[in-house]
Design a protein that fits this description.
Helix content is 66%, strand content 6%. It starts with 5 loop residues before the first helix and ends with a helix. The longest helix is centred in the last third of the chain and has 30 residues. It is mostly helical. The chain is globular, with a radius of gyration of 16 Å. The chain has one domain. It has a three-stranded antiparallel beta sheet with strand order 1-2-3, with helices on one face. The chain binds zinc ion.
Length: 148
Amino acid sequence: MKQMDTKSLVNYIALKILGGSDYILDALEEYLVKGEGPASVAYKYQISKHQLRGYAQRIIEKSGSEGRARKIIPIIKQIASDIKPIIKKNEKDLYVCEICKVTVPKEDTEEHVRKYHKDILTATMKTMLERLEQYKKDKQTVILTSVS
Ligand SMILES: [Zn+2]
């Protein structure tokens, strides 16, 4: 079976959140984990069905299988719950970087984060990877305690 590419998965999610697509984990949980219809989930988050399926496909690829993607999404949602976007959509539907105070075209938000805020991206990924490690350790402890 294909291995999970944790680093690539965390990088993908961190970029999405920081770039302003912070609904991605909610949308994927509803679509992939809870099995809600793509049309209603896409409508709720104002994205296209095509985009939603694209996100799901990327996550499945990086997870190694659909089953693993379903398991990892709620865990990542938990560990990323306090991570906030640095690019946000304003009332005029423009994407603004809160650090540089500039407008960024919608399709360039992730590129902007990668190019100008690499330090934040790196720190966010580090936090997420550390929390994932901690989650794994805690889970092992629970299993060991329940066996003994
Ligand atoms: Zn910026």
